[in-house]
Amino acid sequence: MSNAPAQRVPESEKITINLGPVDLGRIDLLVQEGFYSNRSDFIRTAIRSQLATEGEVLSRSIARHTLELGLRDITRADLEAARAAGETLHIRVLGLARIAPDVPAELAAAVIGSLTILGALQAPAEVKAALKDRIR
């Protein structure tokens, strides 16, 4: 057994931000009035509040970036729905990704931001050509 101390993973990451004097003064006033214990407390609270506000968008984005196992069929309807919602898809598959033969290359190029395949891709030649710089 080694007597070396275990490597500790930091619980937080330090960041540096630049604020104008007026914003900094407002933060200091809130700290002085007791709303926050210090500047860092205010900034952490503000960041958490903003992340909570954007929670649904973050959840959708995380779900879109998740690696899928097995077979992933990508249909024309899937891509049209994503385009209608203004979404860009980042598809990650471990297994087989299959893009339907009726998917036009223009639609695939408009909606698929990246395609990471650990396995195989089945798609029309025109779609593969349209996505060639996005396939990893």
Distance between the termini: 43 Å
> Largest beta sheet: what is the strand line-up?
1-2-3
- Helical coverage, percent range: 40-55%
What class do helices, strands and sheet pairing give? alpha/beta
Protein name: Arc/MetJ-type ribon-helix-helix transcriptional regulator
InterPro entries: Arc_rbn_hlx_hlx (IPR013321), RHH_8 (IPR041088), Ribbon_hlx_hlx (IPR010985)
Organism: Cereibacter azotoformans
Provide structural commentary.
The chain has 136 residues and is an alpha/beta fold. It has two domains: 33 residues; 74 residues, no CATH class. Helix content is 44%, strand content 22%. It contains six helices and three strands; from the N terminus they run H-H-H-E-H-E-H-E-H. A three-stranded parallel β-sheet has the order 1-2-3, covered by helices on one side. Helix 4 links the parallel strand 1 and strand 2. Helix 4 crosses helix 5 and helix 5 runs parallel beside helix 6. The longest helix is centred in the middle third of the chain and has 15 residues.
Brief digest:
This protein is 44% helix and 22% strand.
SSE blueprint:
Blueprint: H1 21-32, H2 39-53, H3 55-64, E1 67-74, H4 76-84, E2 89-99, H5 105-111, E3 112-122, H6 125-131
List keywords for this structure.
136 residues; elongated; three-stranded parallel beta sheet; alpha/beta; 6 helices
